[in-house]
Amino acid sequence: MGKYHGNATTVLKPKTTQEVSDIVKWCHEKRIGIVPQGGNTGLVGGSVPVQDEVIISLANMSQVRSFDPISGILIADAGCILQSLTDYIAPHHHVMPIDLGAKGSCQIGGNVATNAGGLRLLRYGSLHGSVLGLEVVLPDGTILDQLTSLRKDNTGYDLKQLFIGAEGTLGIITGVSILTPPSPQASNNVIFALPHFDNVLPLYQSVKRQLSEILSAFEFIDRTAYDLAVKHGQGRALSDEDVEGAQCFVLVETSGGRREHDEEKLTTLLETLLEADKPLINTGVLAQSPAQFSSLWALREGVTEAVSKEGKAYKYDISVPLSTFKECVDVTREHLRSKGLMREDAVKHVVGYGHVGDGNLHLNVVADTYSSEIQDALEPFIYELVASHRGSVSAEHGIGAMKTHALHYSKSAVSITWMKKIKELFDPRGIMNPGKVLE
Ligand code: FAD
Ligand code: MLT
Ligand code: ZN
After folding, report:
1. What is the catalytic activity of this protein (predicted)?
2. Taking the domain 186-303, which CATH number applies?
3. Is the ipTM of this complex over 0.95?
4. What is the fold, at CATH topology level, of the domain defined by 311-421?
């Protein structure tokens, strides 16, 4: 993002859990701050030192420890890149339960540390469910070995859950045991062009009802996001006729057991939608080949990259009621306009996209530069808007360095007090990713 800058002089790249433990023990003794770093793809500045902490990169811990093709349980070093794990288990007919645009760089340890959501959460649920065990180096260097591969284990407190989404503030994840589902026999996708945002929710209802068990993604991009994706070469543009009059787009993916069955369901869905008295969609483009399947996905997955090519992105990753997605984008744009900031040399676009199925809107403001004037116009405005809907200021990207001051909009004072007690218990010297998550 080019937004966060630290002053670290040292990056250490241990190769084993024991080496991580030795380094952490030493830092603990000397009270030296540590920043765990995975693929460095996080969007809230969590992996960047705020002062001169030592960076511990997991990049050299990238071995698969075991994979059981019967149970689908994968045990891997935390530094394994998500795409490599996907490739590793593919010949065994399994897929990773998580998928995101950063898959070529992000690491499984980083995914777990951020409790990343991504494009498959609708189908496979959150990492709180699929992670079975973790190996973690605690802030005093102790190795906590909870790398179990048990599906069921009700033996008291489930400590691993604390590290999922802790963003490296409670310890360094060195190993991950994760349940991987069997690969779908067939995957299809279709992109719908909609005349109004108001049609997204009824469409979601119809799609869920008609596709039921084969629905695996329901992703939303507004017109501005689509135009930016096309402008910056992400995926292949739909025809002019298909996009004419479209206010937004929805990408639907199916993952099922039998190609003919799934195709029939999708075709029937498309026909029903197009033949309705008041159609919810202008048109739907069904992928006809694996290349077109990828190209449709690229239009959605490529928005992040397109936005950063267009300018500097102020990124807000929020959970709000689905019905308010468009309102949140429009209200923010109007607010910036009222401040005189919607102009070529300040804010160029206000963009909305995200995971409808998860109630997660990505509200991005694209500007010429990062400036305090724009920042002050956006915050606390957006956080107050989210709080007014009883939403979350961070649906899936985490708090990192960006939102420590905004935590209270989504967490009660009592929750924050107990989070601080947990942090104090694990890391009384405050060396583990200081300045992140908690102020
Ligand atoms: P990093 O960025 O290196 O670190 C992220 C945080 O985790 C930091 O606080 C760091 O200290 C900590 N950390 C990293 N590794 C460890 C470890 N081994 N032990 C303890 N702490 C650790 N996020 C989503 O949720 N959903 C998406 O759909 C999504 N799409 C993205 C698309 C693009 C193009 C990009 C650039 C980012 C996207 N992200 C998404 C954000 C990001 O990719 C995820 O948060 C990812 O899980 C971060 O993994 P990483 O290995 O890059 O972690
Ligand atoms: C996405 O859904 O594309 C990611 O969370 C990244 C982003 O918000 O830009
Ligand atoms: Zn996302």
Report:
1. (R)-lactate + 2 Fe(III)-[cytochrome c] = 2 Fe(II)-[cytochrome c] + pyruvate + 2 H(+)
2. 3.30.70.2190
3. yes
4. Alpha-Beta Plaits (3.30.70)
